[in-house]
Design goal:
single chain; ten-stranded antiparallel beta barrel; mainly beta; about 65% strand; elongated
């Protein structure tokens, strides 16, 4: 690939028990998700890739996405932003109708949160008052290696693909109270760094210079899942 640009929409789904219990302690109510027992965390990125320099089978990509405060769960606002870079190298590109095999190394930075209003002051939180903004926040820096395989279905524009990701996430999550997240009245953040082992499977369709992809993702560490859909121009 020499150049590509596209938009990708996705969402992770996780158990609703922990955030709901934390919200209750903070005096805010996290509404039931559209999937019973699961909370959904949507995001999108605009991604650009360039490659094919000097005839070498590699490309470099960058992505960015921003979801400003958006009412998703009743009275709660959700926000998220993500940036990332990666490089792909094709280990095997067949001359016929065989599978393409590639490897990748990448970095992602993610921040997000849920904001409500304190109705009950939690114990041990000095200077916190009712009607004060309450935030459940998280941030993550992830480095991961990826192995990718793709197989076109005969001479059609349809293809199937899959990947395995292995990496490490340096993560923090916790609570903040107050109008200013950079200088909160009270905060309590915890390190929740973890190994990353995940995979995905999907299907793609090629229409001229455009590609449409849909995939399902699975985390083998905590057994949570996600979905992704994208459309891109590529040549």
């Amino acid at each position: 690939m020499h150049f590509g640009i596209g938009v990708f929409l996705g969402s992770a789904f996780m158990s609703n028990n922990e955030p709901a219990a934390l919200g209750e302690t903070m005096g805010i109510s996290i509404e039931e998700s559209m999937i019973k027992g699961k909370q959904w965390f949507p995001n999108y990125v605009v991604a650009v890739r360039v490659g094919g320099f000097a005839g070498l089978p590699f490309d470099i990509g960058a992505k960015f996405g921003l979801v400003p405060d958006t009412a998703l769960w009743g009275s709660l606002d959700y926000n998220s932003w993500i940036i990332g870079v990666d490089i792909h190298y094709a280990l095997y590109v067949p001359k016929g109708n065989g599978p393409v095999i590639a490897v990748s190394l990448g970095y992602d930075r993610l921040e997000g949160g849920v904001t409500g209003t304190v109705t009950t002051v939690p114990g041990g939180t000095q200077d916190v008052t009712t009607d004060m903004p309450a935030h459940i926040v998280w941030e993550s820096n992830t480095v991961k290696a990826q192995a990718i395989i793709s197989q076109q279905l005969l001479a059609t524009g349809l293809s199937f693909f899959g990947s395995i990701d292995l990496g490490f996430g340096m993560n923090k999550a916790g609570v903040k109270f107050g109008h200013n997240l950079d200088s909160p009245v009270y905060k309590n953040m915890k390190d929740v760094s973890t190994l990353l082992l995940s995979g995905s499977v999907g299907v793609g369709y090629e229409i001229g210079v455009f590609r449409i992809d849909a995939s399902f993702m699975w985390n083998f560490i905590n057994f949570e899942s996600g979905i992704n859909f994208g459309i891109r121009y590529q040549r």
